[in-house]
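S1.2 Input.
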Amino acid sequence: MPTVDVNDSTPLRQAACGPSERTAGADRMFRVTVVSSARAQDLTLESFTVEEFAALLAVVPVGPKDGEAFIPALLRDCAPGACGNIRAGLHPCGGGPHRLDENVTHITALAIDIDHVDGPERVEGDLAKIRERGIGYFWWETYSYKPRDICMRVLLPFAEPLPVERREGWKSDRRRLLYSLGLDIYADPSTCNASRLYYTPRRPTEADVRRSGWSEGAFLDWRAILGARDGQ
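S1.3 Output.
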């Protein structure tokens, strides 16, 4: 796996690569919704090149697991006073884009949770299936990673945002995408909600190393697997 092995505590927004470090295809853009922590309401839609997102993943501060994260999705604003957070008594709603499945309008990347795999051999075999199709992906080791207990995330940006036509629609689409890629072993129903949040890398102690990288390839064309959407 191509590796960006940088572990420091530089704030994520200061991560940058110089011209000599540019990643091939870095001019391609995709969008994610960034949030400062799992329970925060400060959702911000941001655009990234391949280069910028790889640089973001390469910054690995020491600290607790909960911290800056992203949702590979576009979210609509809640109707003022009408969102599920009010009904659940969690947060007052002023009409912002809260992290609720019902607010997701589009998915921007296919994210894969790889957890508690005994050794890297199976993971490498699965990632090879993606590379053989010429598809690019980001990968990073998570807070819980251990050399013989692999925990990592893989992110395949879409060539264009995938519309979410109904609340359950993404679960079916995600399962079809994974099966098409030969990665159906990761079609875990507990990880398929449309507003699922993914932490950027963090590490428990200074002695811990968390690697990340970008494997060069094309952005995933979901239309080739799922077909066209109505009106598109």
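S1.4 Remarks. Strands lie at 29-35, 44-49, 69-71, 73-75, 104-117, 137-141, 150-163, 198-199, 212-215.
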